[in-house]
């Protein structure tokens, strides 16, 4: 059966491709011999092969040339050469969309389809259906029906599969062939069975009852074809999911019984179906997991891959169910197929115990360089999750990560590693030095600006507080010499922090700063000049304000410049600088790349900005000054009541505005003149009510109350208001919303509203708390000790204090290390009126929690207020 | 949705040579609609697989099963939700059919000299993405390429007869069960 092509091709050597230099036009020229009589089957066959080869290579054929070749080809039907005829069918299929008038061959194909040559019939049917439209399909309907039930499997299969292709186009015609398909489904041939089942399902899939009946029939009759079984399992699990049938359903039993099928394909399909079912219990999963476990040791890579991939999915939801397979998975981590090995390891990392981590990490490192970046990121993420689960393993992880950091890899991969190292440093103080050392090494040769600036920022923050800060200076200054502007600027900021905090390093830092002042970039020069001046003052308070804790609140260069000017002329009042409006709720934001400060980037309006604008539009609230703080919304009604009211508290310097967002959930009522009457418990004075004029059904509206804070008693920071919703009701038509003319007054009692000390304090993050502590000084420091009898853990105590005072925890002190009996919490904020306030709270756990609170502020009253409210 | 039970299993069948050049490519759906995208995908697939002899990979969100022999690389591609063993059965059927047709001589030159055999075999194995046949014997029989010198060997004749008898018997059996 080995064919010899033209002599020329044969001579061109064994490595050559006889089709390599085919010219489309030359081949089409050759196609003219189709018209010669008698037909030379061998040559014609060769030309058809060339045409199909060209089409296969993606060669474009114009409609004209394709049509011409197609028509020439039709003449070849006169030859009785089998292979030539079969190639004609293929050409028809390939050209069906390119050539015009392909229906010309319909009668030839119909003749072959119904003829005596079985070898022609199947392919002829498939070619015919490829060129047929709905109207023509009706003409050949009779033949199709006969072909579906034909005794020759290839004919039956061809007819069934072609019918399936036609369903999209001519559903109404094909659905009349259900009976024939039904008959074919009981064929003994495995492929015919499969195709018939597929066609039947496609015809019935929108009729759940029919699908259910069909399943019932086939699951009982017992099919031969493994393909058909897979299809049945898929249909059954879809039906189970749609009907939300319990797992006691016969369909579930059927799927489970397939776990014992003799074909691996069916067993795997069933196991996979069970694993993907929602709400599977561990007991229902167990048999599926155990067959997957068997597959793990199969010699076939595809089967191992399929098994471990499915087990990985199980491990996400039910890690305990997979523990039984740990041993088998262990064997796969050295698999030569790296996809299998990676899947096995990430599964094990999810299910394994702490003791296995070292070994697994060793395994991954042996081949991590061979897998693709996508899989590497998956591995880093698994490590990151593991570090949180087993914090004691950080040294192993750190080692591993540093090795990965040295390897080649894209930005996403490197960023994942850097993020992971930074989070380990933050969680585990004892890993700080090793982590910083690895990062220092990394920035020595780092092409990603974002990562370099991020690491420099971290070095500036953490480096000065390590036992030997001098060793980081070299790494940082190297950046100033070698890198791009953004990195240089970040390096200058980091240097300044070292100078400010370490007196013995200050002279050398100043020398380095001086060199930075010659930089070619404006931003770098500005920063260097600014820091140089601040550092030369050698004042702790200045350092704290402008170097450590400056970055978050006022880092725009213009502002720095302004500060610089004022610094040299007159005392600069910090209060004249507006506070950053974004209260930092997450420590993460701290790591925003420093480089962004260089770009003129405008942050979007914050929630508070929006409120400020809204309030400023109301005449009653003019002259209150700038909005100091907006609280989170407080619900004043139960869920699902007639009226839903929530309150947002806005704090100004001497006033508070209460904004009540009300929703009327009754569709037969229109509320008018809606306001919330407030009765304060303390010396708070309600000055104004701003009612909402109309409150139609389901359209939220707001009313406001303006309250003056007691001036003669500044310590009265907390107050309880009893609130009543007052309004005029007009009944209305629920359909049209048309209200009656007359209404009546009514009221609705709301829950009490509390104003607490937290409403008077805005959160401020001080990245370097100690510096801020020194800056405020001990002029108004007060200290008191409290016993929190009802609190059982340090975590709980920390949480309570933070939420009570509404201040920003600094230095990650909101996280209590495990197994510790004492802890120090640092809180920072600004009190209404602009006074910095810092709280240091030492906590000790012994039969309840003892708390020693030290408060510092630039104003004595504030200190008293805080202590009084804690007491 | 991917979970819809369907017979459309195969997204593509590819055969590349050891330079990663396309010898045969048949795409059955619109995952890679243009020749440019197809070639880029083939390049990626070849780079990721030609150095390893592992038989399965996940690439561009698709499951790829593959097999190499001397200077040929065979690929069958399906959705990542597809039963990997079904794709494997297609790959094995294709390889075994070609192996028989080329008398175990599965290499580039022999394949290029029998391209029409390859075209016809793939056409018998997958039709528009549906697995049409998974038994290499059946495929070889249906492709029924007649050689120059030996029209039908002793073995093929007996094979054909056996198949005819088998089909006849099964037909009667079906009829019997229907009438019962």
UniProtKB/TrEMBL annotation, chain A:
GO terms for cellular component: COPI vesicle coat; endoplasmic reticulum; endoplasmic reticulum-Golgi intermediate compartment; Golgi membrane. Residues 1-20 are annotated as: Disordered. Gene3D superfamilies: Coatomer, gamma subunit, appendage domain, Leucine-rich Repeat Variant, TATA-Binding Protein. Residues 24-538 form the Clathrin/coatomer adaptor adaptin-like N-terminal domain. It is a peripheral membrane protein. Its main location: cytoplasm. Residues 610-756 form the Coatomer gamma subunit appendage Ig-like subdomain domain. Keywords: Cytoplasm, Cytoplasmic vesicle, ER-Golgi transport, Golgi apparatus, Membrane, Protein transport, Repeat, Transport. It holds the Pfam family Adaptin_N. SUPFAM superfamilies: ARM repeat, Clathrin adaptor appendage domain, Subdomain of clathrin and coatomer appendage domain. It is found in: Cytoplasm; Golgi apparatus membrane; Cytoplasmic vesicle, COPI-coated vesicle membrane. GO terms for biological process: endoplasmic reticulum to Golgi vesicle-mediated transport; intra-Golgi vesicle-mediated transport; intracellular protein transport; organelle transport along microtubule; protein secretion. Oligomeric complex. Belongs to the COPG family. The coatomer is a cytosolic protein complex that binds to dilysine motifs and reversibly associates with Golgi non-clathrin-coated vesicles, which further mediate biosynthetic protein transport from the ER, via the Golgi up to the trans Golgi network. Coatomer complex is required for budding from Golgi membranes, and is essential for the retrograde Golgi-to-ER transport of dilysine-tagged proteins. This is Coatomer subunit gamma. The lineage of its organism: Eukaryota, Metazoa, Chordata, Craniata, Vertebrata.
Automatic annotation (TrEMBL), chain B:
GO terms for cellular component: COPI vesicle coat; Golgi membrane. Residues 9-147 form the AP complex mu/sigma subunit domain. Coiled coil: none annotated. One of its GO terms (biological process) is intra-Golgi vesicle-mediated transport. It is found in: Cytoplasm; Golgi apparatus membrane; Cytoplasmic vesicle, COPI-coated vesicle membrane. CDD domains: Zeta-COP (cd14829). It comes from the Eukaryota. Belongs to the adaptor complexes small subunit family. The coatomer is a cytosolic protein complex that binds to dilysine motifs and reversibly associates with Golgi non-clathrin-coated vesicles, which further mediate biosynthetic protein transport from the ER, via the Golgi up to the trans Golgi network. Coatomer complex is required for budding from Golgi membranes, and is essential for the retrograde Golgi-to-ER transport of dilysine-tagged proteins. The zeta subunit may be involved in regulating the coat assembly and, hence, the rate of biosynthetic protein transport due to its association-dissociation properties with the coatomer complex. This is Coatomer subunit zeta. It comes from Oncorhynchus mykiss (Rainbow trout). The gene is LOC110494223.
């Amino acid at each position: 059966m080995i064919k010899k092509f033209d002599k020329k091709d044969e001579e061109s050597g064994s490595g050559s491709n006889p089709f390599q230099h085919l010219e489309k036009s030359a081949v089409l020229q050759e196609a003219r011999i189709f018209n010669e009589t008698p037909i030379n089957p061998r040559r014609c066959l060769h030309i058809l092969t060339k045409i199909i080869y060209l089409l296969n290579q993606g060669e474009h054929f114009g409609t004209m040339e394709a049509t011409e070749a197609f028509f020439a080809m039709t003449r070849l039907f006169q030859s009785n050469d089998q292979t030539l005829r079969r190639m004609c069918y293929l050409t028809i299929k390939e050209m069906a969309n390119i050539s015009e008038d392909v229906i010309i061959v319909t009668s030839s194909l119909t003749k072959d389809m119904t003829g005596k040559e079985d070898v022609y019939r199947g392919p002829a049917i498939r070619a015919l259906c490829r060129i047929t439209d709905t109207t023509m399909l009706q003409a050949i309907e009779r033949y199709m029906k006969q072909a579906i039930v034909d005794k020759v499997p290839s004919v039956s299969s061809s007819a069934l599969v072609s019918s399936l292709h036609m369903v999209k186009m001519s559903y109404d015609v094909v659905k009349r062939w259900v009976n024939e398909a039904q008959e074919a489904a009981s064929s003994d041939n495995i492929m015919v069975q499969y195709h018939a089942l597929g066609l039947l399902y496609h015809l019935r899939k929108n009729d759940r009852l029919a699908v259910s009946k069909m399943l019932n029939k086939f699951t009982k009759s017992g099919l031969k074809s493994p393909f058909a079984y897979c299809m049945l399992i898929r249909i059954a699990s879809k039906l189970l999911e749609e009907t939300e049938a319990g797992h006691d359903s016969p369909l579930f039993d059927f799927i489970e019984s397939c776990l014992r099928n003799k074909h691996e394909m069916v067993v795997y399909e069933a196991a996979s179906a069970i694993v993907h079912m929602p709400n599977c219990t561990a007991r229902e999963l167990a048999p599926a997991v155990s067959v997957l476990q068997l597959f793990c040791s199969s010699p076939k890579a595809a089967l191992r891959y399929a098994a471990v991939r499915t087990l990985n999915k199980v491990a996400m939801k039910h890690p305990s169910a997979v523990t039984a397979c740990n041993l088998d998975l262990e064997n796969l981590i050295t698999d030569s197929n790296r996809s299998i090995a990676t899947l096995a390891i990430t599964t094990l990392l999810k299910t394994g115990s702490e003791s296995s981590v070292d070994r697994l990490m060793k395994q991954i490192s042996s081949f991590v360089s061979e897998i693709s970046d996508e899989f590497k990121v998956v591995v880093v993420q698994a490590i990151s999750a593991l570090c949180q689960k087993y914090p004691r393993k950080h040294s192993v992880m750190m080692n591993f990560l540093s090795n990965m950091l040295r390897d080649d890899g894209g930005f996403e991969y490197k960023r994942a590693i850097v993020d992971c190292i930074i989070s380990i440093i933050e969680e585990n103080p004892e890993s700080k030095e090793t982590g910083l050392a690895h990062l220092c090494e990394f920035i020595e040769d780092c092409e990603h600006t974002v990562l370099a600036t991020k690491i420099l920022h971290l070095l500036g923050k953490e480096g000065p507080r390590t036992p030997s800060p001098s060793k980081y200076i070299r790494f940082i200054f190297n950046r100033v010499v070698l890198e791009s502007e953004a990195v240089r600027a970040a390096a200058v900021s980091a240097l300044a922090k070292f100078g400010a905090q370490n007196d013995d390093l200050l002279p050398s830092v100043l020398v380095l700063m001086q060199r930075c002042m010659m930089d070619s970039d404006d931003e770098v020069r500005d920063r260097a000049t600014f820091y140089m001046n601040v550092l030369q003052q050698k004042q702790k308070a200045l350092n704290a304000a402008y170097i450590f804790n400056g970055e978050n609140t006022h880092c725009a260069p213009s502002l720095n410049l302004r500060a610089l000017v004022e610094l040299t002329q007159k005392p600069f009042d910090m209060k004249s600088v507006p506070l950053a409006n974004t209260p930092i709720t997450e420590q993460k934001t701290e790591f925003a790349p420093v480089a962004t400060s260089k770009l003129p980037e405008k942050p979007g309006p914050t929630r508070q900005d929006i409120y400020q604008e809204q309030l400023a539009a109301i005449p009653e609230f003019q002259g209150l000054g700038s909005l100091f703080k907006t609280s989170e919304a407080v619900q004043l009604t139960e869920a699902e009541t007639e009226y839903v009211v929530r309150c947002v508290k806005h704090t100004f310097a001497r006033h508070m505005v209460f904004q009540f967002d009300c929703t009327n959930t009754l569709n037969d009522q229109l509320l008018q003149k809606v306001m919330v009457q407030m009765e304060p418990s303390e010396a708070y004075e309600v000055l104004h009510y701003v009612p909402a004029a109309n409150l139609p059904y389901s359209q939220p509206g707001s009313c406001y109350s303006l309250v003056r804070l007691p001036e003669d008693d500044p310590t009265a920071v907390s107050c309880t208001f009893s609130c009543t919703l007052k309004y005029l009701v007009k009944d209305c038509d629920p359909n049209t919303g048309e209200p009656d003319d007359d209404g009546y007054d009514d009221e609705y009692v709301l829950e009490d509203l509390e104003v607490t000390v937290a409403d008077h304090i805005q959160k401020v993050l001080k990245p370097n708390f100690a510096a801020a502590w020194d800056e405020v000084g001990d002029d108004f420091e007060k200290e008191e000790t409290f016993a929190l009898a009802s609190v059982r853990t340090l975590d709980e105590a920390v949480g309570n204090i933070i939420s009570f005072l509404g201040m920003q925890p600094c230095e990650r002190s909101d996280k209590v290390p495990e197994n510790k009996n004492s802890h120090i919490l640092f809180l920072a904020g600004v009190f209404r009126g602009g006074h910095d306030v810092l709280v240091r709270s030492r906590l000790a756990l012994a039969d309840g929690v003892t708390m020693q609170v030290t408060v510092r502020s630039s104003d004595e009253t504030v200190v008293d207020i805080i202590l009084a409210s804690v007491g | 949705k991917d979970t819809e039970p369907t017979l459309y299993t195969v997204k593509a069948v590819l055969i590349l040579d050891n330079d990663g050049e396309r010898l045969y490519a048949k795409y059955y759906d619109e995952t890679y609609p243009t020749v440019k995208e197809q070639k880029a995908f083939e390049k990626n697939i070849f780079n990721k697989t030609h150095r390893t002899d592992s038989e399965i990979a996940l690439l561009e969100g698709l499951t790829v099963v593959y097999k190499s022999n001397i200077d040929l690389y065979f690929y069958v591609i399906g959705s990542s939700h597809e039963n990997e063993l079904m794709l494997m059965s297609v790959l094995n059927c294709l390889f075994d059919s070609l192996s028989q047709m080329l008398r175990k001589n599965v290499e580039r030159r022999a394949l290029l000299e029998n391209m029409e055999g390859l075209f016809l075999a793939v056409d018998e194995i997958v039709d528009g993405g549906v697995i049409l046949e998974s038994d290499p014997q059946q495929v070889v029989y249906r492709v029924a390429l007649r050689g120059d010198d030996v029209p039908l060997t002793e073995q093929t004749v007996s094979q054909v007869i056996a198949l005819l008898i088998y089909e006849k018997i099964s037909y009667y059996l079906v009829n019997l069960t229907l009438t019962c």
